[in-house]
Design a protein that fits this description.
heterodimer; A: 498 residues; mainly alpha; 0% strand; globular; B: 527 residues; two-stranded antiparallel ribbon; 2 strands; 74% helix
Chain lengths: 498, 527
């Protein structure tokens, strides 16, 4: 559409440099890996971490190069690198970096140190980045598939563990089903709008042809299917049943990645499709999203109450948090979208840190991931316990953590709408926060109030894991105290949509 | 200045973190030094405080700094007559918390003192914060140290009590957060004086249903904290299981945050709703007074007895507040301070007994006057001050509250007055069972009398009780302006509301007690 002549090929390359860099490093790792002797596998591992860092650096190149507007539409408007894309690039590549850093010692311990793991993480992240900047449904689908297929393999990476296999198979079957929904929805939308480009769809909806009533029926049906597909990806009720099993079975650092990157990317595309393209259908979808948000919060939190496995508990808490994000999403306003973005960041940081720490504490074969296994952590590993408590407090939404401000922004977005139904969602969110406090506190309680187990104590925290803890804990506090910089970023991202 | 007082304990606590865990005595002394120093610094607030500030200087020692831009949140601190005394109460009680834990806490000493000092910072912060967001931040920040204080250093059922405490408080506070944000959507500000100004001047008006909901959300958070009957069930557990210092802080300061919040936020922000709900709330308060006293009477556990007596005493405070006249509110504020001193003293005494015998069960004691004469006499003094003996602090507060309540509704005062009698019953009866009579348990014959440290703590409390009993104008003079202002903002808005309502013929005679009280207030405000 606006693919003017000034947008030369070089410009496009720089714009998409983070994605290209990640793919490039992924391929490089695959090529190098066979030539590296078994004993020196950490070499390719480090290459993966460097790849993530390089992609992260490229985000700045991409942002810098775009100038202030970031409004270019390269590749004949399949992809748009705007503020939202830059924010998401930054988020998903940071998550990939942290996840890899947290995996180094885990994989070594489990005897799974292979180059392809890091290549897969990079590919998955590249897919997420494509999703985050897609301006067209088929492109979004390609991104979704790239990230999903890599994720299926990663979920089953502990190939000798039955649970990991279960996780991969479940994720694969249900995930393919969901992507099929998405694709079918995209096809119907194409039938209705004559285009899969979000901007074109938006135009058609805003100026419908009065003679062709069927078009809008197709669009509604198509968007319903797309909503189902994406709800599966972000794990909101009633499409969340896969989450606990997949999260529990996957290698713990991978679970950390699942809980952060794909969710962020899926929310990005959800925002683009339903806030931007289908913005005028807000009344059609309001009740679906309202019900889904309410259901997700309660199902996630109530189920989490009775879990004894920390991984499962955090999986259910992830579901609940997706519900909180939906509350802001339901507000369907700029403030709401900004709250969604801020919350994703706050939530993902915490989940990454928590899962990485659990990956370390779980010990060989993930034998020790029950809540009781954390007993006395406050005595034996004060730093790790402090970080874990911080994460839990942030998930709970207590002040001076990013989670608290995230919740505040969601509440504000919901209440600013001055709509009784959104107000009721806000109150439900508040009630849920209290419910969730119970199970988060249970972990804190075990860490600090119980005596450490006599016969076993976790190994000291290795440096890469400690680095992940720092990189997640410090921003959590920093965002809780001085959110302005990020807040401006998300507000700008939200305002450039539409 | 306020920033210094607020964060001084926290900074001291952080410094303590660098001291070696094994140097327990150093840590205790360090914490004591920090606490005392904070008290001395806070005395400077008293010195610089003006009793009758001008029209435009409602808050003194005000500090205002930009913090976050979207939504606009500022770091806004200020002090008025109400918060002045509560800050001083906090800084006054904290050194005694350190003192009473000198021998009682021997495990993880460093963490204990760091948490205690962090808690002090949060409590002071609650009293001086003028931005609703900042207030909420401090309000929630108190939970974490308290959770650990009860959970780590408490008695047998400590974990249950700690979790219950946090869940109850969070349940209320999260609703308050929703209300704060809703108030922001209505007025466009988190800054309390700005919001109040907008509401008083009529630039923003809340519809009656909105006001009711907001009032209830704020009130629920504070009523749980107070705790108002029937939301009090967390209190006995938390008190009984908490270590002595925890109980002193809990009874002395934390409960006051509930009543402080009601006075500071509920009344001025939502005058119509508070007038509307006042009779119901007063009813609950009276039930609390009598119920708390009756339950306290039959407790076999001394700490639980004191805990229930807090329910009863705080019932008086709430009754005073919702009598909605100057006398009663003065009394309520005064009673808040009294309760902090007297009940703090009772818990200190209970802690001293616990340190000796590791039990709170009353029948385990008896005849303590023989082995512990000094303790017995100081303890009697504290009991009497709590029971409201004339010349001591409790009397003034209760008298003012009953006086004010009578102006609003004679029945309230009549019923509440039974609480005064009952409080004498349970306090003196328990005193008799603990101290008088023959020594029933042989072990008690050998108990050492109060040590110098303990004598000092109790004596300081007694002196304070006496000073507050005879020199009450010293205190009430500084709160008078605040009380008048709270009532004024109530009255102006209610009158305006009536003026709007009257032509339609639907006049609600809501502010009649207020007008009467306003006329009375000038004369009776100063006892």
């Amino acid at each position: 559409m606006q693919a003017g002549a000034n947008l030369t090929g070089m410009e496009d390359v720089l714009r998409l440099s983070p994605i290209l860099m990640a793919c490039g490093f992924g391929i490089l790792i695959m090529l190098v890996d066979p030539f590296v002797p078994r004993a020196r596998r950490s070499l390719t591992a480090n290459l993966g971490v460097v790849g993530a860092l390089a992609s992260l650096a490229c985000v700045f190149v991409s942002a810098q190069h775009m100038g202030r507007s970031y409004s270019g539409l390269p590749y004949t408007s399949l992809i748009q690198v705007d503020d939202l894309s830059i924010f998401m690039f930054f988020a998903v590549f940071s998550f990939a970096f942290l996840a890899m850093l947290g995996s180094l010692d885990y994989l070594e311990r489990e005897g799974l140190q292979h180059g392809e793991y890091y290549a897969l993480v990079l590919f998955a992240t590249a897919g997420m980045a494509v999703m985050a900047c897609a301006q067209e449904l088929v492109t979004a689908f390609v991104g979704l598939e790239v990230s999903s297929i890599s994720s299926y393999i990663l979920a089953g990476y502990r190939r000798n563990a039955p649970k990991s296999n279960e996780s991969a198979l479940k994720y694969f079957l249900l995930g393919s089903f969901a992507t099929a929904f998405f694709l079918y929805g995209a096809a119907l939308i194409f039938g209705g709008a004559g285009s899969t480009q979000l901007e074109a769809i938006r135009e058609i909806i805003l100026h419908p042809n009065p003679l062709r009533q069927k078009e809008s029926d197709l669009l509604v049906l198509g968007s319903a299917l797309v909503l189902v597909g994406l709800s599966f990806k972000v794990a909101t009720a009633p499409f969340q049943f896969w989450t606990p099993d997949v999260y529990e079975g996957a290698p713990t650092p991978v679970t950390g990645l699942f809980a952060s990157g794909p969710k962020a990317a899926a929310f990005a595309i959800l925002v683009r499709v339903f806030y931007s393209a289908f913005g005028s259908y807000r009344d059609t979808w309001f009740w679906a999203i309202w019900a889904s948000a309410a259901l997700t919060m309660f199902m996630g939190n109530l189920a989490a109450l009775v879990q004894t496995n920390v991984k499962r508990m955090l999986a259910y808490s992830s579901i609940a948090h997706a519900g909180y994000i939906l509350v802001a999403f339901a507000a369907n306003s700029q403030l709401g979208i900004a709250a969604v973005l801020f919350y994703i960041l706050a939530y993902a940081l915490v989940k990454l840190g928590a899962f990485t720490l659990l990956g370390h504490l779980g010990d060989t074969g993930e034998r020790r991931v029950e809540i009781q296994d954390l007993a006395g952590l406050g005595r034996t590993h004060p730093f790790a316990a402090l970080c874990m408590s911080l994460y839990l407090l942030s998930l709970m939404g207590l002040p001076i953590t990013a989670g608290f401000l995230g919740k505040l922004y969601i509440l504000k977005a919901a209440l600013d709408a001055q709509n009784i139904y959104l107000t009721s969602l806000a109150i439900m969110l508040a009630v849920n926060s209290v419910i969730s406090a119970y199970y988060y506190l249970r972990v804190v309680r075990v860490m600090y109030f119980s005596e450490p187990a006599a016969d076993w104590s976790p190994a000291p925290v290795p440096y890469p894991v400690a680095a992940v803890l720092l990189f997640t804990a410090l921003p959590t506090v920093y965002l809780g105290l001085f959110p302005d910089a990020v807040r401006v970023m998300v507000l700008r991202s939200a305002s450039t949509l539409r | 200045m306020l920033t210094v007082v607020t964060f001084l304990p926290l900074a001291g606590g952080l410094l303590l973190l660098f001291v070696d865990e094994e140097l327990k005595e150093t840590i205790r002394r360090g914490a004591m030094a920090v606490a005392v120093f904070t008290f001395l610094v806070s005395l400077d607030l008293l010195a610089g405080f003006q009793s009758s500030p001008g029209e435009y200087h409602v808050y003194q020692f005000e500090e205002m700094r930009h913090w976050m831009s979207s939504p606009p949140i500022s770091y806004h601190l200020g002090l008025d007559g109400l918060s002045l005394w509560l800050v001083l109460l906090t800084t006054f009680l904290t050194p005694f918390c350190v003192l009473c834990s000198w021998h009682g806490v021997d495990r993880r000493v460093k963490e204990f003192h760091v948490l205690l000092l962090a808690l002090e910072s949060a409590m002071i912060g609650v009293f001086v914060a003028l931005d609703l967001f900042l207030f909420f931040l401090f309000f929630e920040a108190m939970l974490i140290p308290m959770f650990f204080l009860i959970g780590i250093w408490g008695h047998e059922r400590r974990i249950y009590a700690a979790v219950k405490f946090v869940l109850y408080t969070m349940a209320g506070s999260i609703l308050m957060l929703v209300a704060i944000v809703a108030l922001y959507s209505q007025t466009g500000s988190f800054d309390f004086p700005v919001i109040l100004q907008k509401l008083v001047s009529g630039r923003t008006t809340l519809t009656m249903p909105t006001e009711r909901l907001l009032f209830l959300a704020f009130f629920a958070a504070f009523a749980i904290k107070v705790p108002l009957f029937p939301l009090h069930t967390w209190l006995p557990d938390a008190h009984v299981e908490a270590p002595t210092a925890g109980s002193v802080i809990l009874a002395g300061v934390l409960l006051k945050i509930g009543t402080y919040g009601i006075l500071r936020f509920c009344l001025p922000l939502f005058p119509r709703a508070s007038v509307e709900y006042a009779p119901y709330i007063a009813g609950l308060a009276i039930i609390g007074i009598i119920y708390g006293a009756l339950v306290a009477m039959v407790q076999p556990d001394y700490k639980k007895l004191v805990a229930y007596s807090s329910v009863s005493h705080l019932g008086f405070v709430v009754l005073g507040i919702f009598s909605l006249n100057a006398v009663a509110i003065q009394g309520a504020i005064y009673q808040m301070l009294n309760h902090g001193i007297s009940t703090g003293g009772l818990f200190l005494a209970a802690g001293m007994l616990y340190d000796r015998r590791h039990t709170h069960v009353i029948t385990e004691f008896g005849g303590l006057a023989t082995p512990m004469p000094v303790f017995a006499s100081l303890f009697l003094f504290v009991c009497l001050s709590s029971a409201g003996l004339p010349m001591l602090n409790g009397f003034i507060g209760e008298f003012l509250i009953l006086n004010g309540a009578y102006l609003t509704n004679p029945w309230w005062a009549t019923l509440a007055a039974t609480g005064v009698i009952l409080s004498a019953v349970y306090l003196l009866w328990s005193y008799q069972r603990l101290i008088y009579g023959p020594v029933t348990v042989e072990k008690n014959r050998e108990l050492p009398d109060a040590s110098g440290r303990e004598r000092f703590s109790l004596a300081a409390i007694c002196v304070m009780a006496l000073v507050m009993g005879v020199a009450s104008p010293l205190f009430t003079a500084r709160t008078e302006a605040t009380v008048t202002r709270i009532l004024q903002s109530e009255m102006t808005r209610n009158t305006r509301y009536e003026a709007v309502q009257r032509p339609t013929g639907a006049a609600v005679p809501v502010s009649v007690p207020l007008v009467a009280a306003g006329a009375e207030g000038g004369k009776a405000g100063r006892p």
